[in-house]
Each structure stands twice: as C-alpha cells, then as structure tokens.
Write a structure and sequence with these properties.
This protein is of the alpha+beta class. The protein has one domain (3-162): Nucleoside Triphosphate Pyrophosphohydrolase, CATH 3.90.79. The chain is built from three helices and nine strands; from the N terminus they run E-E-E-E-E-E-H-E-E-E-H-H. The termini are far apart.
C-alpha cells in the first residue's frame, strides 16, 4: 500500500499516511477526476468495479483516482486515464477544484476532455471499471434525483460543480 498526501482545509500538505490508515471522514486527501464530454454535450460516466472498496458498482466520473505521494493532480489524471480507459496523449483542460465533504473528505481537481471517441475504442480496466456509458445531462440529473444509490456518494456535488 502506498502513502497518500493528507492536506489541510487549503490543500496544503500536512503529512503522508498509508492508505489503510486514513480516516476517510476526518483526513482530507486529494483526488483527480476527468469529465469527458462529446460534441452532443453528453457526459461519459464509468461504473466502478464490484471489487472497489469505495462506492462499488456505482456510476461516477469517467476517470478518477486518489493522488499518491510524489504525484501532482495532473500526473495522477494522466496515469489514471491510461490505466482505466486506455487514453494516452490526451489534451485536457484544467477545470475547477472542489472540496467534497461527507462520507469521504477530499479535494477534487477536475480536468475536462472534449472528444467524440467511440466508447468501443476505449480499453476498460475491469479491475477499476465495469462499464462506461454516454449520458445526456438531463438523463443524468433525472437518474441522480430518482435513483441516487446508483451513483458514487459525491455525485451530486460533482454535478453541481461541472454541469450548468
């Protein structure tokens, strides 16, 4: 198990902790996430693998990962995009950084990728992701309201930050 940076309320490094020693309700850690949008305005979401410890079998951002010791948010999202979906050489825009509080406690640095890549061209890492799907913003908002249990626990906060 690797160490993760633990940060303060301003995202300044406080210490490093082993992943299995983190108190997810109290310690603040770092996550990077990739919002993938196509020319129709649809959003690509990924269903987390059943084997994931946090939010298994739930829909969330297309790519997301916890930042490890020695990584920047940017380095992490490049690594995660390749690991989870086989995306390499991507050019993304830096999006907002949000603070997520609740069941998990972290800063999320968003990155945005605009692409019309067919999902069949993506290579899914089955240990991380079980399924990917394009969603319209309307469909996503409706499903999140009607069936919040289908989504990662922080999805409402993500939608508020990323969808007008």
């Amino acid at each position: 198990m690797g160490k993760l940076p633990i940060v303060d309320e301003n995202d300044n490094l406080v210490e490093y902790k082993e992943r299995d020693k983190i108190n997810y309700q109290e310690d603040i850690y770092r996550v990077s996430a990739l919002w993938i949008v196509n020319s129709k305005g649809e959003l690509l979401l990924a269903k987390r693998a059943a084997t994931k410890t946090q939010d298994p079998n739930r829909w969330g951002p297309a790519v997301a990962g916890t930042v490890d010791k020695g990584e920047s948010y940017e380095q992490n999202i490049i690594k995660e995009a390749e690991e989870e979906l086989g995306l390499t050489g991507i050019e993304f825009q830096k999006g907002p950084k949000t603070r997520v509080k609740g069941r998990y406690n972290y800063f999320c640095q968003w990155f945005i990728l605009k692409t019309d890549k067919d999902i069949n061209e993506l290579r899914i890492e089955k240990d991380e992701v079980s399924e990917i799907k394009w969603w319209t913003k309307e469909e996503l908002k409706e499903q999140l309201k009607a069936n919040p249990e289908l989504f990662v626990s922080s999805m409402k906060q993500h939608i508020n930050a990323m969808v007008e």
